[in-house]
Amino acid sequence: MTKYVRNIRGVANKEITNEFASRLGTLVGNFIGQKKQVVVGRDFNVTSQMIKRSLTTGLMAAGMDVIDFGIAPIPVIHYGKEFYNATTMITVSRSNLRPEEVDIKIFSDHEIPLEAYVKKVPWYEIGDLQYVYEYRDIYMRAILKQVDTKTIKEKGFLVVLDKKENVDRPFTPQILNKIGCETVLIESMDGQSTGDFPEPSPKRISLVSELITAIGADLGLVLDNDGDQVVFIDHKGNIIREQTVLAIFVKYVMKDNPGGNIVSSIVASQSVEEIVKDARGKFIKTSVDDVLKEIDANNAVFGGDEPGMYVFPEFQNCFDAILAVVKMLEIMAKEDSTLSSLAKGIKEYNRTGFTIECEHEKTDEVIEIFMTRFETEHNINTVDGIRIDLDESFILIRPSRFEPLIRVYIESTSAPKLQELTEYVKKIIENV
C-alpha cells in the first residue's frame, strides 16, 4: 500500500532536464534494487513524454524492470501497480500550477532517499521495458464493484464532463456509460494552445456551469490532467465547495463505519470535524504531504484534501477523482437527492484562503510570531505550518513548499469575525 508520495517540480528543460530525470530514475532504482518492478505513466503533454522517457532510461540503467502504462490517469496507474507486483510507481505530468513546470510524483511503500551517488549496472544487467494496456479493463471492472450500479442506472443521470484532450482517452466517459449515465463531453483545450494553467480553470468551470443549466443536467464535473482532482458542480450550475464535498463523503462513509478514523490535511473545515465527532469517530489532521501515510498508519476508512482530492482506502490508498465521481453518483441515487440538497445538509463556515509573498528564510519568523501570540491561550497544531483553533474559528498559516509564499486559510462562523481575522493576519505577515 502506498504510504509515501514525493513531488519533484521544476521548469521543463531548465530545472527538470533529461539529465536530471535520468539521474533521478537511477537513484530510485539504486534504492529499490535490481530486477524489481516499477510502473511509470504520464499525462498527455509533450514535455511529460520527454521526461518520462529519460526517467525510464535511468531506471533501466539501475537494473530495474519498467512497466510502461503510457498515457493514463494517476489512480488507474496506481491500481495497476500491484497487479504487476510493483512497490513503486512514477508519474510525470504538467504542473497544476504553471504550464512551464513538470511535476514528477513518486509513489512508494517506502520513503526513498534521493541523495546518493548513482550506480549504473553493467550492460548485461540493464532492466527490461514492457508496454502494457490491460490495466484499463482491470481498473474499470474493479471500480464498478465498489458501487451499487443498479441503483445508479435506475436514475439515468445526465452528466456534463470537462476533460483535457486525451487525458484518459476517454476513460471516465466509459465508466459513466457503464453505470447508465448520459454524458455530454466538453473537450477542453486549455493549456494546450493558450498557455492557461492545466488545473480546472475558471474558464473551464464556467463553460460546464453554463451547459448544465442549458440542458438540464444533474451534475457537472471538471477533472484535472492527472485524474486525482475533481470539481463538482450541481444542477443549478453552482460549484460545490471542496470542504463541503469532503464533508458529504465523510457523512456517508461514517454511516457504514461509525467510530472509524478519518484523515485529512490541516486545511480541513470545522464542519468535517464535527461530522466525525457526531459519528463517534476520530479525526486526524495531518500535513498535506502525509495524508496517504496517515490513512495507512491509522487504518482510516476515508481521507481527503484540497483541492478536490478524495481517498477511499477500501479500494486503494490513492487520490482517485474517478472513484469519487462514481461514489457521489451513488450517494445521489441512494438518497434520491440532488447534489445541491446534499450540500445543504452540510454546515458551511465562512472561509477564505489567500497567499502572501514571503521569502523562505522569513517563514520561520512568521510561524514563531503566531506561536508566541497564541500558544498560551489557544489550541495550536504545528504538524504543517501552524493552525490556531479559536472559538468557532481557526487560522492556518503554511509556508509553500515550492514558492516564496505563505498560504493562509481562515474560517469562522461569523463573516465579520472572518474579515477581522483576515486583516489581522495580513498585517502581521506583511510587517515581517
Topology:
Blueprint: E1 4-11, H1 18-32, E2 37-42, H2 46-61, E3 65-71, H3 74-81, E4 88-94, E5 101-108, E6 129-131, H4 135-144, H5 149-155, E7 158-164, H6 171-178, E8 182-188, H7 202-215, E9 219-223, E10 230-233, H8 242-256, E11 261-265, H9 270-278, E12 282-286, H10 291-297, E13 302-305, E14 309-311, H11 321-334, H12 339-344, E15 350-357, H13 360-374, E16 379-381, E17 386-390, E18 393-399, E19 405-412, H14 415-431
Parallel strand pairs: 2-3, 2-4, 3-6, 7-8, 7-9, 11-12, 11-13
Antiparallel strand pairs: 1-5, 4-5, 9-10, 13-14, 15-19, 16-17, 17-18, 18-19
Give an overview in words.
By secondary structure, this protein is α/β, with parallel strands linked by helices. It contains 14 helices and 19 strands. The chain has helices at 18-32, 46-61, 74-81, 135-144, 149-155, 171-178, 202-215, 242-256, 270-278, 291-297, 321-334, 339-344, 360-374, 415-431, and strands spanning 4-11, 37-42, 65-71, 88-94, 101-108, 129-131, 158-164, 182-188, 219-223, 230-233, 261-265, 282-286, 302-305, 309-311, 350-357, 379-381, 386-390, 393-399, 405-412.
- CATH-assigned fold name of the largest domain: Alpha-D-Glucose-1,6-Bisphosphate, Chain A, domain 3
Computed CA radius of gyration, to the nearest angstrom: 22 Å
- Count the helices. How many? 14
Shape: globular
Mean pLDDT: 91
CATH architecture of the largest domain: 3-Layer(aba) Sandwich
CATH class of the largest domain: Alpha Beta
- Give the number of DSSP strands: 19
Tell me the domain tally: 3
Summarize the biggest pleated sheet. 6 strands, mixed
Percent in helix = 25-40%
